[in-house]
Amino acid sequence: MSRNAYVTDLKTLQGECTANYVRLVRLLGDLDAGGTREVELVNHGRRLGALCLELQERAPYTSIVRVSQRGVLDGLIETPRMRVHLYHDVRMAEVTDFQRQRHFDGRYRYPNARMHQPDEKLQLNRFLGEWLDHGLAHGHSLDLPELP
């Protein structure tokens, strides 16, 4: 029985990247290049750590943000971190680096040497969206006004 090859769903990927752009812009606010913002994550009164955003570069058409998390398991496990490029002219944000791995293809043959899923790029951008949504829904920051 043969499986059909995965076909990249560009509409879904672009939708994720557009939604992530909106989420990041809300969380970053008026942060300047080199600045950081930490959003403390709380769920049912329990502190879960902080979502850390570092604006590494800001230019007229692009910005680069490092997204990471710190929390109670620091030192025990490698916490997620990614580098995200924001493209201001098209209002999209794309994961370009995850856990020190760079450049993700739109699709992969499976199995492969790095064990990437066929839709690895889409999954990484979805993960970023869920992570940012959690920060927007359950996060608290002392230097940001309350988010609607």
Mind explaining what this structure looks like?
This protein is 26% helix and 32% strand. The chain is of the alpha+beta class and 148 residues long. A hairpin with a 3-residue loop joins strand 2 and strand 3. The longest helix has 19 residues, at 10-28. The chain is globular and about 50 Å long.
Features:
148 residues; alpha+beta; seven-stranded antiparallel sheet
Provide the succession of SSEs: HEEEEEEHE
Q: What is the CA-based Rg, rounded?
A: 16 Å
Task: Give the termini separation.
Answer: 51 Å
What integer is the average pLDDT?
Answer: 82
Q: What percentage of the residues does DSSP assign to strands (E)? A: 25-35%
Pfam families: DUF1249
Protein name: DUF1249 domain-containing protein
Furnish the topology, listing elements before pairings.
Blueprint: H1 10-28, E1 36-43, E2 46-58, E3 62-70, E4 81-87, E5 92-98, E6 101-102, H2 120-138, E7 139-140
Antiparallel strand pairs: 1-2, 1-7, 2-3, 3-4, 4-5, 5-6
Summarize the entry for a quick read.
It comes from Halomonas koreensis. By secondary structure, the chain is an alpha+beta fold.
